Amino acid sequence: MQTVYIWIVLAPLIGSIIAGLFGKVVGRTGAHIAAIAGVAIACVLSLVVFNNIVIENGEIFNGSVYTWMVSDGIRFEVGFLIDKLTAMMMVVVTFVSLMVHIYTIGYMHDDDGYQRFFSYIALFTFSMLMLVMSNNFMQLFFGWEAVGLVSYLLIGFWYKKPTAIYANLKAFLVNRVGDFGFLLGIAAVLMYFGSLDYATVFGDVDKVNTLTMSIIPDTQWSVITVICILLFIGAMGKSAQVPLHVWLPDSMEGPTPISALIHAATMVTAGIFMVARMSPLFELSTTALTFVMTIGAITAFFMGLLGLVQNDIKRVVAYSTLSQLGYMTVALGASAYSAAVFHLMTHAFFKALLFLGAGSVIIAMHHEQDMRKMGGLRKYLPITWITSLIGSLALIGTPGFAGFFSKDSIIEAVAHSSTPGHSFAYASVLAGVFITALYSFRMYFLVFHGKERMDEHTRSHLHETPWVVTLPLILLAIPSVVIGYMYVSDMAFGNFFGDAIFVLPQHDVLGELAKEFHSPFGMMLHSLSTLPFWFAAAGVFTAWFLYMKRPEIPGLIQQRLSLIYTVLVNKYGFDRFNEIVFAGGSRGLGKFLWKYFDAMLIDGLIVNGSAKTVGWFSLIMRRMQTGYLYTYAFAMIAGLCGLLIIFVYPLL
Amino acid sequence: MFMDWPLLSLVIWTPIVGGMLVLATGSDKNAVEAKVLTLVVAIATFLISLPLYTEFNTQLASMQFVENISWIERFKINYHLGVDGISMPLILLTTFTTMLVVLAGWEVIKTRVAQYMAAFLIMEGLMIGVFAALDAAVFYVFWEAMLIPMFIVIGIWGGPRRVYATIKFFLYTFFGSVFMLIALLYLAVKSGSFEILDFHTFKLGIEAQILIFIAFLLAFAVKVPMFPVHTWLPDAHVEAPTGGSVILAAIMLKLGAYGFLRFSLPITPDASGILDWLMISLSLIAVVYIGFVALAQQDMKKLIAYSSISHMGFVTLGFFIIFAIARKDANMSGAVMGIEGGIVQMISHGFISGAMFLCVGVMYDRMHSRQIADYGGVVNTMPVFAAFMVLFSMANAGLPGTSGFVGEFMVILSAFKANFWFAFLAAITLIVGAAYTLWMVKRVLFGDVANDKVAALTDINLREALILSVLAVAVLFFGLYPAPLLEVMEPSVENLLQHVMQSKL
Question: Is residue B339 part of a domain?
Fold first, then answer.
């Protein structure tokens, strides 16, 4: 089997290299064939692995491919751990990636950087696979940083756009802040476990569980808590949790396919996946779980609110991604890891669908992204319309759709959770349901219904996008409907992940819920009498009322609540704060240290100063060498007198 | 098959003799002959140095390829050469880099070509001599002699403020070396020989150790350079021609760090342990403070120079955290990784800083400016070059998969064992290092074409592409597979550590 795993990661890499380094040689068609073939091979083989590991319940693989290095007796390996969690992630990553690859043929059709783009997205697939298939922390960090790199390259893909190259630098640096914590977490793991191998680390948790460390003198913190929080800081960067979320909305500067691939379906799920993978560690620290849950709840609610005031179609979806990532994080905090990963999977399908649908609209609108200039598009783009509707219904959790099963599991899990802070989290996720429905259908109505607000020229050219665009939409719409129904019994309430996810018996909310769970259909029926369903319905109704029935009201609300509106439009001021305090502060500090310490104090005063002192001293010495006999005679006499005084004076 | 050959002598003297021959070609009329001869000698030297790796016994901690001939009998000074797993990789780095530097100056240097080329060959031999010397007198001769060609390279082929920069460079390094000479003479008189390995085992009182440690520190700290004796480096880099900058950053800075391993730590282990707080503080200041200073730079070469100082902070940090680890943990797990991380960082920085200076050189040759503000949108006109520069910038920012990651990773892992805050401060480089490097990339490479000069740029030619490709392969290879490097150094580092941990009092 090992050969298969190696080919799964190598195939996209080879595709990337062909498209990237030999793009000119193979041409546009050659590049996309190479990249798509690579990812398709990975996808098919991933399905084989999924079949083998999950469906046939085959043996879990944990083995090394090669030894990266040995230092201090510690082997740093590159290797794979293929269990059910990994197998599921591999399928999600490669399938969504494959859809995006096909879609890209249509979306990037007229772009000069066609080959480069395929090279990047294939490289991204490789990086993400390395991340999820890793069997140790070091390789995890490799994949972690590699997806960050590709994200940097892709956000800045249109390198002439000032906003794009600002956004990619920002994304990289904010991710690096997360990685800073993550790397320290890895260092802590190595220090206390003496290994970076998952199996060894998880096997030794009991030994480390009781240890404490002193970071600030006279305090003792649980080692596990410190490790978990440091690792989670990394997850906050990648999975865009407050306050490290700022890069994600800006990342919409990149071409739409990557928004779907990286900033919705895969890269941002890395943090969620990582925490689920580390469940044996997180389970042991209630403090860390509380921290995780609180951060997630803040993200789920407050980032959702921002979606309400956006007019850029992609940004609405972006904020919705932030909010949904918050849901997953809350689930992690509630020890409902399986529900988090389940939502990760369903979300990957419907969010990719929504983004690609938005992209399809953008193509049809000739790269117009402002929803105020759209409207009534359902006539012109029937496939995009239906698939986007499916995506939106899945997102808001309509019973029967994929998002319903995963999101409802999360909400129920939080309701039954005993993690401190769960009431706040419950309120947030519940309120979030209403907001999600409101902004999703605000977008849906603004784009596909109502008055046609575009100019005449654009309207006359409106038509459905080519098949390479609509085919992925259809292929993603199918799982967006059925995948939840198919897997809810196993993933959320069953033992789908087996030993990959570890939950302490006293934290096992999903296990409790499973006792009440009988069938997916029963869950749908039951939901009709619960709050989330009515909250979602209220959200859709409000959106319909505000944007279809009485379109003048939103403007009035905006005027009445101008303070709140301003706060939301300014995204709570995070960007400004970071720009002034962190970016400006660092630049200012650098300039200050350079000008006053390096240039003035060290170089000016000490280095050149001592040179000047020497120069001044030699000037005086030089003056004394006049060359006149009488000067020297005078000096001799003065010296003689001096000596006489020194020797004679004591005798007197 | 090469074990019986005097390989080290060959690697030292081939380039020096070759350099003399190149000088003999005389005026610029024979520039082509001079260049070809130089390249042949540089490649030959590299090939001669290869058996040092292939024939190296990775099981041994002791010196290999030893040559020992009496030189000045009266003072017991021997021409004693040998390498272990620490110095051997540095010699290969030197021969490798020199080849690239010769190529880099191929079309760029138009005046006094023979002299320029000869200077680099002679410098190569002298630097290898420093790494291979096992006799303090031989070491000192090479150490000081090496300054002369570099002094000439900056002073003659340098920029407008080259005189100031050369004098600063020379005085700074010479100032430090004098104290080292005193320390070496003291040790020689006391121990009765100039053998460095005898110094290692020679018992010394704590006062003597501290004085000797400080004397060595002055010499080596200037070379590394460590804060606060680093200000000569940005000036020297800015004024030096590209080749000079590459050798300076890739090799010369490593000599100081090498000195800590060969002299300070083994000769004065107790003093090193007592003064480790000083070394750790200075290293962390280099990493953090210099990182911020780099952020403020307007001149690309200055920025990379400051970045070099910051990266070298990892080297000295890795070397001196071992005592803090030993105090915490009797097993000293993590100490070997600190030193090895430092050495890996030395090698990796050789590739990356060399590549970064070459990249700036490529642009400078076309635009005659190093100011970031004069650039913008270079990717539009030089896409191939931009791809290389992004790769090296990422390596400079320590991206996993490039060699820049390995050393920093190891040192941070090791520093965590010494003290959480050491690791915390060192890891700040993850953010600041990315910030200054990628901000420069953004302003220089990305964006729309900034001005007519940028619009007129031509992409790199085959020669430049060859140089950068070779470096790119090296950077990626050691990032993806550092195991061979570590295998070579492991026994020597363990041996060193055991030695350092035994008190000499």
Answer: yes
